[in-house]
Amino acid sequence: MSKFHVLIPAAGTGSRMGSELPKQYLPLLGKPLVHHALSLFAAASRISAVHVVISPDDDLWAQYSVDFGAKVFVHWLGGATRAATVLNGLEAIAGQVEPDDWILVHDAARPGLSHAMLERLLDALQDDAVGGLLAIPLADTLKRADAAQRVASTEPRDGLWQAQTPQMFRYQLLKQALQQSGGAPTDEAQAVEALGFSPKLVPGELRNLKITYPQDLQLAQAILLADAREQKIP
Fold first, then answer.
1. CB under 8 Å to 47, separation ≥6 — which residues?
2. For labelling alongside 170, which of 8, 76, 87, 93 has CA 20 to 30 A away?
3. Is residue 44 within 8 Å of 118, Cβ to Cβ?
4. Which own/partner pairs from 178-187 qualify as long-range (CB within 8 Å, at least 24 positions apart)?
5. Inter-residue contact 89 to 6 (CB < 8 Å)
6. What is the rounded (10 degree) CA torsion for 90, 93, 94, 100?
7. Strand locations in 57-204, DSSP E?
8. Structural domain tally of the chain?
């Protein structure tokens, strides 16, 4: 039976946050962002291993990380782009996975993934021929801006979804897709699409937001605090 492995690219700098601290280490409820992703996967019984790929010159991991046990592995192999970091990670674990094992690539800066969403993704894709990703249908009207930041046009949103993570594909397919991607695909699904495949969209949730701007941290904190309060209710 194919196993489930998680790969978390965490080699970026998070320049849009306007912080000197790399985004994956920004504090959220007293712990770095990457901690929240790791804790969920480390506790998930269906996940066989979790691989974190960080920058070769990362000197913060030892300071901010928490020991999650033998399931979590760290690789100092981050590349110049997300795609390069993920591919480096895939190559590093080649001897630990089978070609048909599933790889779940998840953003280090998505602390709101829930166990229910993870289970939904695994159940929906474990027998799928291609794989897929969590995503949510776009609800807001889309405006295309011109060079002066004025509205150039209104874009139809019918059939449009906002991609989230995890993005889940077989090891061999994902590795081939990234090797042949040429440029720098913005996510793993785009690389797989370039091979002619159609990844499946699995409904995610708004809470699974990616921390990109400072105000996103406040929203994520509110979500996690609400979770904590619910867990205390008998």
1. 4, 5, 6, 41, 71, 104
2. 76
3. yes
4. 178/83, 178/86, 178/87, 178/90, 179/87, 181/83, 184/81, 184/82, 184/83, 184/84, 185/83, 186/82, 187/82, 187/133, 187/163
5. no
6. -70
7. 72-75, 102-105, 131-137, 142-145, 151-155, 161-170, 200-203
8. 1
Q: Could you tell me if residue 104 is left (phi over 0), alpha (psi between -120 and 50 degrees) or otherwise beta?
A: beta
Q: What's at 36, amino acid-wise?
A: H
Sign of the torsion formed by the C-alpha atoms of 60, 64, 69 and 71: negative
Lookup: tokens for 149 = 């930041």
Report the candidate in 72, 76, 78 with the shortest Cα–Cα distance to residue 50: 72
CA distance linking residue 166 with residue 134, whole number of Å: 6
Nearest to 67 by CA among 83, 82, 50: 50
User: CATH number for the domain including 142?
Assistant: 3.90.550.10
Copy the structure tokens of residue 14. Answer: 């998070």
Query: If 0-12 CB within 10 Å is exposed, 13-18 middle and 19+ buried, where does residue 59 land?
Result: exposed
Residue 182 CB contacts under 8 Å (≥ 6 apart), including other chains: none
Residue 89: predicted pLDDT: 98
Name the token pair of 183. 């440029």
102 secondary structure, DSSP code: E
Return the amino acid letter for 96.
Q
Residue range of the domain that includes 189: 4-232
Mean pLDDT by 10 residues, the chain (234 residues): 96 62 91 93 97 94 82 95 96 97 97 97 98 95 95 93 98 97 90 98 97 93 91 68
